[in-house]
Amino acid sequence: MTPLDRLRETWRRDQIFDFMLPKPEFGKAVDTSHGPILYVEDVSVSFDGFKALNNLNLYIDDGELRCIIGPNGAGKTTMMDVITGKTRPDTGSVYFGQRIDLLKLPEHEIARGGIGRKFQKPTIFEALSVFENLELATASDKHVWYTLNHDLSAEQRDRLDEVLTLIGLTPQAHQDAGALSHGQKQWLEIGMLLVQNPRVLLVDEPVAGMTGEEVEHTARLLTSLAGRHSVIVVEHDMAFVRSIARKVTVLHQGSVLAEGSMDQVQNDPRVIEVYLGE
Amino acid sequence: MLTQRLLLSDRGGMVVLGLVVLTAILVPILNLVVPTSSPFYVSNFTVALLGKFLCFALLALSVDLIWGYCGILSLGHGAFFSLGGYGMGMYLMRQIGDRGVYGHPELMDFMVVLNWESLPWYWQGFDMFWFSLLMILLVPGLLALVFGWLAFRSRVTGVYFAIITQALTYALMLAFFRNEMGFGGNNGLNDFKEILGFDLAAKTTRVGLFVASAIALVLGYLACRYIVTSRMGRVIVSIRDAESRTRFCGYQVESYKLWLFVFSSMLAAIAGALYVPQVGIINPGEFSPLNSIEMVVWVATGGRGTLFGAIVGAFSVNYAKTFFTTFSPETWLFILGALFVLVTLVLPKGIVGLLGHVRRKGDKS
Lengths: 278, 365
Description:
A: alpha/beta; B: two-stranded antiparallel ribbon; 4 strands; Urea ABC transporter ATP-binding protein UrtD (chain A); AAA+_ATPase (chain A); transport (chain A); nucleotide-binding (chain A); ABC_transptr_urea_ATP-bd_UrtD (chain A)
């Protein structure tokens, strides 16, 4: 585009600049009347010529539990980065509900607005107690002055206690989070997502490094969350995916290769070729 | 409730604060009331020295608040300290009036030497104490705000941030060395006569400044405690430990860092403003990058992330400095360097950490 064209584009009579748009309103305003809560359309991301995502299209329904699988380098983590605002795509659009354009929002606003994310490596605040970890994550006013002068309200504390029971860490509430076992750290991080009252939970490899019993517990936890929240799980462990999945999306080289129930996906010849048949 | 939160839950802090308050009560009595011949007499020199240490302790607090709690290593806090000092120096200069060497009713001596006709615009208003106080807080605060905003917004962290803060204080040092800047160039501001009408050479004024420094230190400590024990304090610690996690919890990390950086710079400026009338001079050498590094050494030696550790560190390192610079001046820099290496390798939690370790061992046996 020549500079002249760009100038013409800028001065078009019906040009709408970003600052003129109404501020997106999160919370109850998320419009899911057509089903999906998350629309990822034609998203491409490239890093130094390598296409991490290539015209990715993905729709997540409200309250759905979706598993995303795919070989290494298929773009699973990049996809999460795009949704949470950490990476901006080259092309495409990402909408939360029908009206909120996530590509225009900074990370903390996306997080406040109801998209929670669990990292691959458990990242919790090790120097703080389990309770304080959850306290920090709890949905409330997160501006500097407010946090300087206010503690949590009674309702927020109730929600916190509820989540503490759900993740099974009530006895450890006042221990340092750094002293927890690996599995407990993973649950704590899931708990930190839950107290944010998110509409969508992005969970990256929740059972990596867990014992069999812990895996079972996590599976129960995640399936119990579906319905109240939309849950997107990225996982390598096929047995685990089979135990929780209703609908599975297979990513390959940055785009969707197959989508459907576990059985459908497993019998898809293309999927067998790139992933399952190894 | 608040006393519990600020004091009682923090044993080390109570001990250190208690000592500060005790000194603030005893030293004036021992200096003013006790006769010079008595063995308990505290000399004027010691009063001035301890007063200086109190200012350094406040400065160390400000460094500990952002480095120990938020993980932002600023190697340029000397800049805020010196700016606060210059603000106070300008007020003290204006108090000289026509008693300067050249007897000019309005201009400072160095301005007469430079053949300046009238007072520069930025010297206006500094004859009023309240205005000077306001500027002492606002100028460093504003600098920290602009500088921090630019740095944190671009997500400059860690060693890169440390380097640009060094550059900041170095640039300011070079600027203040210039005569055309109108801050006395090389010589800085000195030859002060009085503060708020009190003669600066008088014993009582010196003791008054000493007590004021102790009060500032106690209030500064309580303010820092209030911040680190609030929910905001926990957000700050979590930024230190896992910044992106904090961001995904919905916190705007940049504004927390910025707020804390500005607060810390103002604390440093207050320390500088109290320091200048007690030592009687402020010159561009205070901006020297080495000074800023020394501050970090105080905090590291005392124990970062404990607040009272910063006070302990400021006192002990500066006491050692006074001792060694009188005893054998050329070795001090080597000792300082060795101290930093030693603390980093052997005492990651500083003196405070060592004391805690010894106490726990004692409890066990």
